Amino acid sequence: MEIILIRHTSVDVPQGTCYGQTDVPLKGSFEEEAAVTKAELESFGPVDYAYTSPLSRCTRLAEFCGYKDAERDRRILEINFGEWEMKLFDEIDDPHLQEWYADHIHVPVTGGESFMMQYQRVSEFLEELRHKPWQRVAVFAHGGVLVSALIFAGHVKPEDAFASLPPYGGVIKIEL
To answer: Among residues 16, 21, 4, 18, which one has the least CA distance to residue 57?
Structure first.
């Protein structure tokens, strides 16, 4: 099965904002960015089914690309940044922050998730997809979800994953 992973377009939040599962707005350049993403997605050919994160930054792109009925699945939400949501990283006053910086893969944020917790959610989603009858599936999601899928498919190791983070509007393919 081919899974086409699509990252949402640019968000309209200040640089350095920890926005995870908050439903933030998209930049005014959405239509231009989305048109590029749609063309890249179409280059893979038709898909049998589409999923999307329930956050509007993903559902809006799915709709723009022609998948207004994409199934919403909470397992493909971005990482939960708990008490840090919508704070600038430079302004987070939490003694736990340095521990998280030292090992964000395993250490959860205060009141939220670690990267491995997110990876587990995404892995459950992908494992379920393995048993579906489709040949090609589109998944509109977030950077952390795409990175988790790359790890799941054996393309990267967890410690190297964020060096492989696709850009906003990026489209990648994995095979299960």
So the answer is: 21
